[in-house]
Amino acid sequence: MIRIPASRVAAGALPQVCAKHGHAAIETKAVKIISKPPVWAAPLIIVGALPYLIVVMALRKTVKAPAWPWCEECASERKTRFSVGFGLLALGLLLFVGAFALNNDTSGLLFAVGLLALLIGLIFALRGGVLPITGAFTSKDGQFVEVPKGSEHFAMVLSRMAARV
Ligand SMILES: [Zn+2]
């Protein structure tokens, strides 16, 4: 787990190293890093999606990172997730069209498989966003940005930078 003070992230004072993969950054991304929803809020979903969202939004801590390091592997992960996601979305739509066009016994099955493809495609496409790829979260108190599966190399360069400041 890598912990970076939120002020450093907000100032863009980060190593030019990808925090997740440890490769040299090829560019930087502006990204809003948010905290995870608290575990105790989950039962609120039973009460309704709205109360849950209100609680989660009220407690959410956001750190605006103007220059988060982004490496080649981040870019290719994003490309893969988008290709798989949009591929499945297209397949799902195709199966829907097929189901309506055939309009026979297999239509129900085609429709069900199409729906599944759409759902999985949507999840992949959403996981292709900049924030999911960074793997970074803001801590509950908003003081730190945490990368649970962060790279050792990033942590080392970061601590050297911190020592110089
Ligand atoms: Zn990366």
From TrEMBL:
Task: List all membrane-crossing ranges.
Answer: 40-59, 80-102, 108-126
> According to the lineage, what is the superkingdom?
Bacteria
Question: Keyword annotations for this protein?
Answer: Membrane, Transmembrane, Transmembrane helix
Protein name as annotated: Uncharacterized protein
